Amino acid sequence: MDDDNDDEDFVLPRKDRIDEEMDITPMIDITFLLLIFFVVCSTMDPTKIGTIPEAENGLAVSAKKSAVIFIDPIGDDKVVLKRLDGSEFSRDEDLQSGEIIEYITAELEKADGVPKEHVMLYGDSNVRVGEVTRVQKIIGDAFDDLESTYIAVKEN
What we know:
The protein is elongated, with a radius of gyration of 30 Å. It has a domain at about 60-155: 2-Layer Sandwich (Nucleotidyltransferase, domain 5). The mean pLDDT is about 80. Strand 3, helix 4 and strand 4 (about 150-155) form a beta-alpha-beta unit. It is about 35% helix and about 15% strand. It has helices at about 5-10, 25-40, 95-110, 130-140; strands spanning about 65-75, 80, 120-125, 150-155. A 4-stranded mixed beta sheet has the order 2-1-3-4. By secondary structure, the protein is α/β, with parallel strands linked by helices. GO terms for molecular function: transmembrane transporter activity. It holds the Pfam family ExbD. One of its GO terms (cellular component) is plasma membrane. Keywords: Cell membrane, Membrane, Protein transport, Transmembrane, Transmembrane helix, Transport.
């Protein structure tokens, strides 16, 4: 008859822990969960990065041997792209992409003059890095054999 009460009162004895031992497994779990949360929630947007840093030194690249694209700021985070002769590329990014590829292809394969060896992006120091990166991506995707593009920064 007292069997029911005996089952309820029975408690396993707790294992005594030494005060110097501490289980840090939950703390490690929380740290990794927070790390994963911040990595997933953060955005990697190069357009939110600041302006092009000032050049301290670099390679000397001849503009005569380069297909040059000028990147000039025209207001709030907007730029205008120009050819070496001063003519502007389209302001529509889709059309602009095709025009850049045509221009560089023509410059690298010049039949009437000396063919160009490099591509140089010449930008004002107020141009956002994201715009330079966008133009570099267009060039890099279209020209696999092109080893690098050079960036020249106009100092104010």
